[in-house]
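Chapter summary example: a protein plus guanosine-5'-diphosphate.
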Amino acid sequence: MDNELLLTLLIPCLNEEETITDVVETAFRAGKKAKIKNFEILVADNGSNDGSVENVKKQKIARLIKVPVRGYGAALHWGILHAKGKYVLFADADLSYDFFEMSKFLRFIQKNYDLVLGSRMKGSIENGAMPFLNRYIGTPFLTWLIRYMYRLKTTDCNSGMRLVRKDFYKSLHMRSSGMEWASELLCKTALNKGKYSEVPINFYKDQRSVPSHLIRWTDGWRHLKAILLLKPDYLFLLSLILIIFSYFLLKELIVLSLYLFLLSISLFLSTIAAKLLNLVIIKRESKIMDFVIKISIVKIGILITITVAMLSVVPFFSLEIKLLFIGLVVVFDMWVFLIETIKTHLVNPLPEP
Ligand SMILES: Nc1nc2c(ncn2[C@@H]2O[C@H](COP(=O)(O)OP(=O)(O)O)[C@@H](O)[C@H]2O)c(=O)[nH]1
Ligand SMILES: [Mg+2]
């Protein structure tokens, strides 16, 4: 690329008027101190309606871009694609990360690393900087899941300070628009065998009077879905385990056994759906992709459910056949649910410049 810079310091922003000026200023001074010859500061704002945008404009240090889609992931995605730097180092607009720690990351540029994560777990976390549940349960559990499923040696999957090589990022075809973008980036780095490393960083209590944008349970669930659905193979194993349980319960607890059997079949089908969709997701421009986005699977699901409900009152069929119908419909409906989930979180495209 012509006029390519070495580094872009990227700050995602949504209503951070109290802190954005200081973050931009810190990034600027840190860039100068690190003696980077050519760098830029980029603020990706997606719809601030406080004074954030005016503050950035007044300061005249950073380039400002307006992102047309809401969400932390969307803001960073659009920002990285608009960056002029070969590498992008990003951190929050709330003063919880310190751009003066950038030299730890920059060492990895010469070695052509694809992603370097600032780990708060290896560094330090100021008292009150992270809610108890996130610090001791949520983040460690999701991190463990990524370590185990993707064999990526990560210690802090929710860290918001990372250095990424722009060309590598482009090859990942990212999907998530929310906070789960952070997990998706790690999973896809592992799947694409990216060169990955971590550096310890300090994490501070944010300096704003308004609450964080994170919605604990909703965002946690979105993280979990992103992690499971990007590598659904483990769900095959789970459905096998359920079948085995169902077999052993057959004599004593027939209802539970039947339920586990159905669950395992639906999980199996869901996993196949997830795998197929993953193939589709990688090839964004494909015809199948268009089809998946347009097709209204929920409507088909409702239609089939009503048909079967009607069939099950026809006296012509025996009880066993009716039970079978209903069982199959349960399985099918769960499958529909899963496909819709994947469509929402992984297939719907992120904004492109
Ligand atoms: N949630 C959210 N955050 C955004 C969005 N756009 C930019 N951000 C910024 O993303 C960063 C992370 O959000 P924050 O509230 O600090 O989440 P936390 O670090 O998990 O507490 C902040 O700098 C936000 O201003 C958006 O649309 N949604
Ligand atoms: Mg933050």
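Key point: The two ends are 16 Å apart (CA to CA).
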